[in-house]
Amino acid sequence: MNTINHKDSLLLIIDIQEKLSNMLNDESVKQNAIKIAKAAKILNIPAIITEQYPKGLGSTVSEIRESLPDALYIEKTYFSVLKESGFVQKISDYGKKQIIICGIETHICVLQTAFELINLGYEVFVVSSASGSRNMENKETALQRLRHASCQTVTTEMVLFEWLEGSKNPAFKELQALIK
């Protein structure tokens, strides 16, 4: 198992949209995703943001959009974003081997996307504290399946501190402020 390295990381935020995030019983999912988005911006980690049928489900929550103004946005209709035309090439063009995923819903879009990324040979890390489902049993079952499929499940703080590597990182105080 490898630790997360900011130089090898690509952040993939899946469907953290207005209507979907409002359906969750856990507000911390959205707040943790915002922290990760802000950390990615500070550390210049590239990000891709997906939106499932934004006309009906709304756009990505504003705090994430504001945190990652340069992110690549992908509108999707498939549950796995890898099935969208040209997406596999887009992700490959970043030249990163570690994909950090957070999103909604864990047992549908996050799970199916993670499985396909694993099958393509990427190291996949799903941020459990920044991923959610309307039903906790669905989320927990998805996380179990992901672990059995060689996906690493991590928390928001694990991601931030592994990206930092140590307290001498110039961004340490700025990222530390995100978790206080």
Description:
- This protein has 180 residues and is of the alpha/beta class.
- It has a single domain (10-179), classed as Rossmann fold (3-Layer(aba) Sandwich), CATH 3.40.50.
- The chain is built from 9 helices and 6 strands, in the order E-H-H-E-H-H-E-H-E-H-E-H-E-H-H.
- Strands 3-2-1-4-5-6 form a 6-stranded parallel β-sheet.
- Helix 2 runs antiparallel to helix 9 (172-179) and helix 6 (106-119) runs parallel beside helix 7.
- The radius of gyration is 15 Å and the shape is globular.
- The model has no long low-confidence stretch (mean pLDDT 95).
What percentage of residues falls in helices of 4 or more residues? 40-55%
CATH level 4 superfamily: Isochorismatase-like
- Low-pLDDT regions: none
Number of domains: 1
Mean pLDDT: 95
Short description:
With 180 residues, the chain is an alpha/beta fold. It is built from nine helices and six strands.
Draw up the topology in text.
Layout (H helix, E strand, L loop, with lengths): L8 E6 L3 H6 L3 H16 L4 E6 L1 H4 L4 H6 L4 E5 L10 H7 L4 E7 L1 H14 L3 E10 L3 H13 L3 E3 L1 H9 L7 H8 L1
Parallel strand pairs: 1-2, 1-4, 2-3, 4-5, 5-6
Features:
9 helices; single chain; six-stranded parallel sheet; Rossmann fold; 180 residues
